[in-house]
Each structure stands twice: as structure tokens, then as C-alpha cells.
Design a protein that fits this description.
This protein is of the alpha/beta class and 271 residues long. 42% of the residues lie in helices and 14% in strands. A 7-stranded parallel β-sheet has the order 3-2-1-4-5-6-7, sandwiched between helices.
């Protein structure tokens, strides 16, 4: 457990909290004294993460939440406020990779199925919008708050593959800035975290591939893949009062990828 608790007294909801960046962010928030609400569509894994946080001494609960469905947000957030009394932090970490049902990368734009585009947009863009929309009221009642959207370096860089994923993250990037302006009057900060090549369940096969993984390492000046905790610690900063004057920002955590000219060829397996 952390010795300095930076989120003591705060209530934080994390979407996509059953695995990867969402799960690690939920764990770090629990270590730092927050009451953590883990949400996901994978109930078994989500409940396990919440139990792990509780077993470590923090206050945690699990709620099923499909972030693309507005009626589920309309149910979950009032339940959270009723149970915990307030909402201070929202992390929109739920996401879809855009990979096809057989695990392969999607076709180029001229062959991209509409249902692929719509399913990715529904979570990576619409889900971020809905979470932000419905978090405003409880955060206003709490006197302010922090909304953290997990975006991607591929909202900054171009790509020769996976148009659905990259476009959805571009939408989240632009929305984050707009929402930051809209919510500033209420002392609600809205920021984006931009992961680079992070090893999670979604990327581990790509990162283990000698061709694709090797190309990603070559494109990363620090010559290693990031871990979910690297992103979670960035979220911790934005969730804490240390970032009280930070809104509309882009916190890039990528080992230097965007600081150099990126060769996009061979890198286009999903982040």
C-alpha cells in the first residue's frame, strides 16, 4: 500500500475496470485512499478486481456497465452516489480495439465494415461522451471533480490501418478539450491520457511478435514497452488535487514515441 494517500476521501468510478489499464488504475486509486467503483461488462473479472482492492484494505464495489448504453449510466451513477455519497473522479478507460472477430486487423477503409466502425465508436467515443455527460451533475453537487479520458497516441499520429480505432480516439481527443471548456465553470476538470505501446491482454500477442513487437520497440526511444501501472500513475496525478489547475490537457505516456518521427509501417496492430 502507498504511504502517501493522494485520493483520501474521494470517490472514483473506473470504466473498463476488469482488466488492463482500467484495472490497474482502480488498484492504484484504492492504494491512495479512494473509494473505487469498478465497472465493466465482464462481471466475473470486474468483481475479482473489486474484491482484490477490498482485500487490500480499500473501499471498493463492482457495477455492471456497458458504457455505450445511456440507460445503464442513468442507473449506475445514481446507485453510486446513493451508496458512496458523492462522485469525485471518473476514468473513462473502457475501449474496443477494432480487431475483427477472428482476431485479425480490420480491412483498410475501402473494405471496412460499417458494423466495425459503429461498434468501436460506440465505446471509444460515445461511451466517453455518455460518461462525461452523466458525471457532471454529481460532480457539481460535490463541488467539482476530475474526468480522465484514456485516449491514445494514435489520436495524434496517422496510421495505415484500423481506421475505426484511430478515428474513435481522435473523437475522444477533441471531445475532451470541448468538455474541459464546458465544465470548467463547475470546477470539473477534463483531461486526456495518451498511452503509447502498453503491454496488456489486448496487446501482449502483438508485443511478443518478433516483427510487430520489434517494430514497436524500435519506434520507442526508451526501448521498452510501457505497463498499465505507468498509465495508472498518470491518472493518479490527474485525479488528485495536485492537478487542480490542469484541464483540457494531453498527458502523453509513450516512452518518447511521439517525440520522434514515427515509422507507421508494421506498427498497425491495435494498441
Amino acid at each position: 500500500m502507498a504511504t502517501e494517500k493522494r485520493l483520501e476521501g474521494k470517490v472514483a468510478l473506473v470504466t473498463g475496470g476488469a482488466s488492463g489499464i482500467g484495472a490497474e488504475t482502480a488498484r492504484v486509486f484504492g492504494e491512495h485512499g479512494a473509494a473505487v467503483i469498478v465497472t465493466d461488462v465482464n462481471d466475473e473479472l470486474g468483481e475479482n478486481v473489486a474484491k482484490e482492492i477490498s482485500d487490500a484494505g480499500a473501499n471498493a464495489a463492482y457495477h455492471h456497465l456497458d458504457t455505450s448504453q445511456e440507460h445503464e449510466w442513468e442507473k449506475v451513477l445514481p446507485d453510486v452516489v446513493s451508496q458512496f455519497g458523492r462522485l469525485d473522479v471518473l476514468v473513462n478507460a473502457a475501449g474496443r480495439s477494432g480487431r475483427m472477430a477472428d482476431g485479425t486487423a480490420p480491412p483498410l477503409v475501402q473494405g471496412l465494415p460499417l458494423d466495425n466502425w459503429e461498434s468501436v465508436m460506440s465505446v471509444n467515443a460515445t461511451g466517453v461522451f455518455l460518461g462525461t455527460k452523466h458525471a457532471v451533475a454529481p460532480m457539481r453537487e460535490a463541488g467539482g471533480g476530475s474526468i480522465i479520458n484514456i485516449v491514445s497516441i494514435y489520436s495524434i499520429l496517422g496510421s495505415d490501418s484500423n481506421a475505426s480505432y484511430h478515428a474513435s480516439k481522435g473523437a475522444a481527443r477533441a471531445f475532451t478539450k470541448a468538455a474541459a471548456v464546458h465544465c470548467a465553470h463547475y470546477k470539473i476538470r477534463v483531461n486526456g491520457v495518451y498511452p503509447g505501446f502498453i503491454t496488456t491482454a489486448m496487446t501482449k500477442e502483438v508485443h511478443a511478435h518478433p516483427l510487430y513487437g520489434g517494430a514497436r520497440l524500435e519506434a520507442t526511444p526508451m526501448a521498452e514497452f510501457g505497463m498499465p501501472r505507468d498509465i495508472a500513475l498518470g491518472c493518479l496525478y490527474l485525479a488528485s488535487d495536485d492537478s487542480r489547475f490542469v484541464t483540457g490537457s494531453e498527458l502523453v505516456i509513450d516512452g518518447g514515441v511521439t517525440a520522434t518521427a514515427l515509422k507507421t509501417s508494421l506498427l498497425q496492430q491495435d494498441i
